[in-house]
Amino acid sequence: MAADYQEEDTIAALATPAGEGGLAVIRVSGSEAVTLSARLLHFKSGSLQAFDSHTLHLATVQADNGELVDQVMVAFFRTPHSYTGEDVIEISSHGGMAVTQKILQLLFQAGARHAAPGEFTKRAFLNGKMDLTQAEAVVDLIHAKSAKAAAVAARQLAGSLSRQLNGLKEQLMKLYAHLEAYLDFPDEHLEVYGQKEIALALAKVRQEIETLLASFGRASLLREGAVVALVGKPNVGKSSLFNALLERDRALVSPIPGTTRDHLEEYLEIQGAPIRLLDTAGLAHVSENPLDQLGMARTRHVLAEAHVYLLLVDGSAPLDVRDREVVEALEPQKACLVIVHKSDLARQLDLKALAALTGQTEPLFVSSQTREGLETLEQRIGAALFGPEKEVVGEKITRLRHKNALETALAALLRAETAFAEQISLEFLSLELKTALDSLKELVGEVYSEDLLDIIFAEFCIGK
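and the corresponding structure tokens:
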């Protein structure tokens, strides 16, 4: 389908974040990248057209009237040995809005157009430099919020997931071709059903897909960030614990109940995983104050979104009806860590009553003032999110698109195994194998629609 792609414009965009900095990189790609860049780039010796690929050169940028704009370094990558597969020029200028905008303006005047979000990577995909899973890994690496998330994205960008998926496709293609050959000779069907290696091959591919699917839960949390919500009645110390976990004063803390009326959120890294930590308004009776009502509504929205609750109770006070109301508002199927907060104060909390209310006999004792229990709390959060069992070994899938495609392939393979075991018509078996193959082809991008590409590359920033 790449042959149908008619985009031939030469494109240019700022590849580094907009703003002030020591350096900025402007990327130009397309069949006219060299010709139009040469109009504004001037070298002491030689010409851009004559330079070897993968070389770096000092140049000045000058407007048509001879005005000096900047002194830059120019990297040149000839087709097809570039990121996009086209001629690519990368201009490293001094960082600053005025300079970069002037250079881009000169490039546009010379005939380039502004690149759309993700268009450089889209061209890399269309020109066969990477498949769709690798293209998605580019944006995942850019947006990675933890070391583990970055490591998973880097492996996918390097093609580790692609190689496994292509191996699965190859195995299925061999089976499919084998069955199609037998369909041309109807008298030989019984011999097909007698071949144990076909059943073993189907089972092997199915098991690999099941292993990939098993990785989705944890891997998707690494990519998107798990949501951990601090919940409890007003003035139980949620904002203090929020600040303590972040190790900075992010939330306003006050002895006045109801200080927090809207939820706050911040990212932090716990055991190598990105966490969206949410500080919520204290759950209480609905008051007549419209601001309180809005705060309660938003807190309940957070409860629905959270993966893990951190349920705070005040260790320096007895349980009351408001604590019970908080527990009743939580979704019982979700993980919940019970925290006896203010553990540095004299305890008035009845632990037996707490266990009866929450069903947990081993709460965590935490003090935001002395930082007692914070390290154990982080360990418990990691265990609640990822479980005590060993992490799935091998490649991981991080996106819902990957999961949906593999689930379609898995369902087809299960039907194929049943058809083979029950010696159902080979046409049915062949059809199921083709369905599984098509799903894997869609996953890596051998088959795609423009709508799918628009959705994927809309996630990208301009310049990548």
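(Above: one complete record from the training split.) The longest helix spans residues 160-183.
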